[in-house]
């Protein structure tokens, strides 16, 4: 009897561990191995076992949504075009893959619709909105046309107004507010826990997503206690990833999804 009880306890423990596993989110795709925010990077991330991809999205001069982090193309293309002042056709003339290797030569900036199309069943996309709240209706149109299930899409933004607009128009979609942390000479940290909780309440966000620096376990636990999810970025160090796993992070965003996924959860990855 005691043997069966012991086995049962072990199985229950394993089940709880597996249930608590954070999603591994590929930051701009598998960006350590492929050009960031491109279809090759996103497809590779899923081949590497990522649970989700994260991409940055901006509006062009002709009202199209494209996937690029910076406000201009200089860093990833060598030539500078300001995204908000350029048409999709103009942006498509640039090669954003060659800087990562000749094998990626000819890679172009993808549209939001093209990125949504590579998300497989059972996988997720974290959509970082790099623009004003006025982008939200266009984003929602594309998401609606994509055929993805509501639970496959998470909207994230540093602009709290974007999250508020998204939750107002599409409460069925998950939305998380993003923020890094700063500490002044007196050790005061901003944003404070009070500000975080107030912002989450005001925006209707489902959770808070932060950089891994400075934040402490008591802050994470308080956010969770108040009924919100907690997510962390951008973690490429396995020990740091394991720490946030212990703290109950809902997801860990990383440039190296294969490495983090394999190292963080041996049970799940078998």
Q: Summary?
A:
By secondary structure, the chain is α/β, with parallel strands linked by helices.
* Coarse shape: globular
- The helix fraction, in percent, is 25-40%
So how many helices?
12
Order of helices and strands: HEHEEHHHEHEHEEEHEHEHEHH
**How many domains make up the coordinates?**
1
List keywords for this structure.
single chain, 270 residues, alpha/beta, TIM Barrel, two-stranded antiparallel sheet, 11 strands, disordered N terminus
Give a description of the structure.
By secondary structure, the chain is an alpha/beta fold. It has a single domain, classed as TIM Barrel (Alpha-Beta Barrel), CATH 3.20.20.190. It has twelve helices and eleven strands. The strands form two sheets. An eight-stranded parallel barrel has the order 1-2-4-5-6-9-10-11, surrounded by six helices. A two-stranded antiparallel ribbon has the order 7-8. α7 packs parallel to α8 and α10 packs across α11. The protein is globular and about 50 Å long. The two termini are 30 Å apart. The model is unreliable at 1-19 (pLDDT under 50).
List the helices and strands and how they pair.
Elements: H1 2-19, E1 23-27, H2 39-47, E2 52-59, E3 65-67, H3 74-77, H4 88-92, H5 112-116, E4 124-129, H6 136-146, E5 153-157, H7 160-169, E6 174-179, E7 182-183, E8 189-190, H8 193-203, E9 207-211, H9 217-225, E10 229-233, H10 238-246, E11 251-254, H11 257-264, H12 266-269
Parallel strand pairs: 1-2, 1-11, 2-4, 4-5, 5-6, 6-9, 9-10, 10-11
Antiparallel strand pairs: 2-3, 7-8
């Amino acid at each position: 009897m005691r043997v069966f009880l012991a086995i049962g306890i072990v199985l229950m423990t394993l089940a709880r561990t597996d249930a608590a596993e954070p999603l591994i989110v590929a930051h701009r795709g598998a960006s350590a191995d492929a050009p960031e925010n491109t279809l090759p990077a996103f497809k590779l991330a899923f081949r590497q076992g990522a649970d989700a991809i994260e991409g940055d999205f901006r509006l062009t001069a002709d009202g199209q949504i494209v996937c690029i982090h910076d406000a201009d193309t200089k860093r990833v293309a060598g030539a500078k075009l300001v995204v908000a002042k350029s048409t999709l056709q103009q942006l498509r003339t640039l090669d954003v893959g060659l800087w990562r290797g000749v094998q990626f030569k000819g890679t172009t900036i993808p549209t939001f619709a093209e990125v949504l199309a590579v998300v497989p069943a059972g996988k997720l996309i974290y959509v970082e909105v790099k623009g004003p709240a006025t982008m939200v209706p266009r984003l929602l149109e594309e998401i609606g046309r994509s055929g993805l299930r509501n639970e496959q899409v998470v909207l994230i933004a540093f602009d709290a107004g974007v999250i508020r607009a998204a939750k107002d128009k599409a409460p069925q979609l998950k939305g998380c507010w993003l923020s890094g942390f700063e500490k002044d000479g007196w050790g005061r940290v901003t944003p404070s826990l009070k500000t975080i909780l107030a912002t989450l309440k005001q925006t209707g966000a489902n959770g808070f997503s932060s950089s891994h620096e400075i934040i402490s376990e008591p802050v994470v636990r308080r956010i969770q206690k108040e009924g919100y999810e907690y997510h962390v970025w951008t973690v490429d160090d396995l020990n740091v990833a394991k720490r946030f796993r212990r703290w109950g992070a809902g997801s860990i965003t990383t440039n190296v999804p294969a490495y983090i996924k394999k190292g963080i959860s041996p049970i799940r990855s078998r």
